[in-house]
Amino acid sequence: MSDETIGRCFGEATPTSVGFISKKMPTVGEFVILEYEGKKILGMIESLMRGSTSIGEDIYDPAIIDKIKQIEGDDYYITGNIKILGDVRDTSNLEIPRVPPLPGTIVKRASPEILKEVFGESKQKNRDDMRDRCIRIGHIITQPEVPVFVNVCKMVTKHLAILSITGGGKSNTVAVIIDGLLKYNSCIVLFDIHSEYSEVEFGEGRVNRIPAKINPIYLGFSELSNLANIGSKGAYVQEEYLKKAWDRVDRTRTNYLQELRGRLEDYLEDSTVKDRESIFRAVNKIRHMEKRYDSVLDTNAPDIISSIKVGCVNIIDLGALDERAIDVIVSHTLQKILSERKRYVKSVRKGNGEGLQFPVFTILEEAHLLAPRDRDTDSKYQITRIAKEGRKFGVGLCLVSQRPKSLDPNSLSQTNNKIILRLVEPSDLNYVQEASEQLSGDLKSQLPSLGVGEAVILGLMTKIPVMVKIDEFKGKISGSDPDVVKEWNEAYEAQRKDLDMEKENLESIQGGW
Fold first, then answer.
1. Which residues are registered as beta bridge partners of 455?
2. Fold for domain 130-213+304-470?
3. pTM of the model
């Protein structure tokens, strides 16, 4: 019900926070209106406590409590805290008042009309201003009739993190965002670590599947040495000779890896060269790399940039690759996207327009593996670069992880937007709060109790923090939990049929004797 009085302010207040008392039970995350100083102020209930004036903490006998309840019934009061969010008379600004509310100020439920204005529905209907383009992400948990929209430009340019435990709804959230962005003919590059999106569809012609292949001629030296496991664990001599050979070969030739190995073998034949054992190991590692990553290193593969299409979600399926190959492909692709966008922006200033001509929103599943907290990877370096520089060149970043505490803090802190679904582990909760200025202690305490698909949304893409029920993606995603009981039963029935058939065949053979 709109404009329903649910309580009054009491106690000491600040311009950003006030306590209230009520006889009615609101819910955490619910929005309220306070009117004072000629302003109409929006607030959100962050915490609640229920108490009784008759049953206090100084009563230690359950029998006495039982008698009080028989006389007074379920008499209680509600106290809580309201976070003040801003003046709704101008929903484009939501200016926070400079003075706190008076004790006794009436607390009313915010009407759906006000909340629809705040959360972008009116902006969505007026599609003339590109800066106000929004996508629907879900609805307010406590008010299903109020949809929540997020600003596309601020989500892409200010970067995004989607965090949750396994099964909390990350994949569905990613799919809802992609589906919304494609309505604006966006360009999305999705690194699919576990092949969760191998069968997903977003409409005819909206999915561009890019093979997880790299033409060796496009590999950088660090990418090659990483893939060959040269230079790691102190193998600096191997790396030194590899670099010498690298500088001497023609890397525009499709067979340059064989030439590279040949150059290293030439050093072995030179009697004046030291470190023969290290060179021999480097040769073997290059040979092993060519064999192990035969499906990844494709001399016919085009430059990855030429495979990326606008108006599509470009899915790179990495599910069949090991961690080293994944790191090389992700870092290589991110580096190329950023460098080509830089080249385009700079060339436009000169009047030509070379390079990648459209912005790109990159989505990285299992981001804690690509940008780990405790070690360096090539992907981590490129992710950090995009987090710091991507905004200026139209390269957005979305980090998706179910292990936030294992994610690089520099990368996570650069994401100015966060969709935080259910988190339970205290170390994850504390880590996320440290990286999220808008995540208060009261909101953090709500994260373990969120249901599947429920989330706290923070950041510049939404004017104020909000607890949301994410919409359900209508298509198919492979990342949902399997029905293990059903699969066990099916396997058991198939096995039993095979045994019955074998038994019948055996009896038939024996009967013929």
1. 468
2. Rossmann fold (3.40.50)
3. 0.85
